[in-house]
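Run log // design_07
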């Protein structure tokens, strides 16, 4: 099978693509790796790049923030946190710890539509979650979700966020959002899985907005490499040794000259050896540029000849 055909399969959302990745992950990971190899990019002078983020989706994630920020500080790692406006209102001090730790906040909508308590997976202590699907909101409603989150974070934390991550972005087509994001002054979005990106893992500039694709699991390459995939989806694909999967991904990025763009749920960082993973990333030294999304997007725009 050619790389182009595998790429087409990966982009399609049907069962065929799912089956292909289950039977032969290399059909999808191969073309992604090849894209990075051929691009021969140097990420701010480094061989690879780690963009580490956290999605603060549930109140239980807010509870975990002080511990996560402390771990990052102890390793000297910077990260980006996708914040939900209503939780910033309710848990301002936990979110302030992110800013005071020198990390970045990312707009993740005001109410995080499509947040569901799923029995057997994760059930929050809160039942007043917004289960309405993001894709069912009108563009006006989506823009309101984005701008309201922006206003709340600015009022409470004094921070103007520069990027956006769509709720449940794995199922979302971000294309209609770029005009809104550009109009609202956003510099970047990270709302697309790498097999679906038009450059297959490489960042792109869409209507002035840098889209930074999210890395998928090397073993299940149509699934985002995140804690949901590891611990909840189908009872968890990587319940043991998830840090080893993450570390293998970092090594893969060094080998191919690629990016690792992943998000973890703060509440689930206790379920694997999070500190081991951070230490591994830091030990890559000059082989891996660890950056916030803002740092990355500004660098990327300059690199692409656009003014940051
Ligand atoms: Zn996996």
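design_07 sequence
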């Amino acid at each position: 099978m050619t790389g182009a055909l595998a790429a087409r399969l990966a982009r399609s959302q049907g069962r065929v693509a799912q089956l292909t990745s289950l039977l032969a992950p290399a059909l999808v990971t191969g073309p992604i790796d090849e894209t990075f190899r051929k691009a021969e990019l140097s990420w701010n002078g480094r061989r690879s790049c780690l963009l580490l983020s956290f999605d603060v989706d549930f109140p239980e994630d807010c509870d975990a923030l002080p511990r996560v920020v402390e771990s990052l500080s102890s390793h000297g790692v910077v990260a980006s946190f996708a914040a939900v406006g209503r939780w910033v209102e309710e848990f301002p001090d936990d979110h302030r710890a992110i800013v005071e730790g020198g990390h970045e906040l990312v707009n993740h909508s005001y109410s995080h539509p499509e947040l569901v308590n799923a029995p057997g997976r994760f059930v929050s202590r809160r039942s007043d979650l917004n289960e309405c699907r993001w894709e069912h909101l009108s563009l006006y409603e989506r823009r309101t979700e984005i701008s309201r989150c922006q206003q709340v974070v600015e009022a409470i934390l004094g921070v103007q966020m520069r990027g956006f991550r769509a709720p449940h972005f794995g199922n979302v087509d971000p294309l209609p959002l770029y005009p809104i994001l550009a109009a609202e002054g956003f510099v970047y979005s990270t709302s697309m899985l790498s097999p679906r990106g038009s450059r297959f893992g490489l960042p792109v500039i869409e209507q002035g907005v840098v889209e930074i694709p999210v890395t998928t699991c090397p073993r299940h390459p149509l699934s985002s490499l995140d804690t949901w995939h590891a611990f909840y989806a189908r009872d968890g694909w990587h319940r043991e040794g998830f840090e080893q999967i993450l570390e293998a991904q970092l090594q893969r990025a060094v080998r191919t000259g690629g990016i690792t763009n992943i998000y973890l749920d703060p509440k689930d960082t206790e379920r694997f050896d999070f500190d081991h993973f951070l230490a591994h990333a830091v030990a890559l030294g000059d082989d891996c540029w660890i950056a916030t999304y803002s740092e990355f997007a500004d660098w990327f725009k300059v690199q692409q000849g656009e003014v940051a």
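The CA atoms of residues 52 and 262 lie 5 Å apart.
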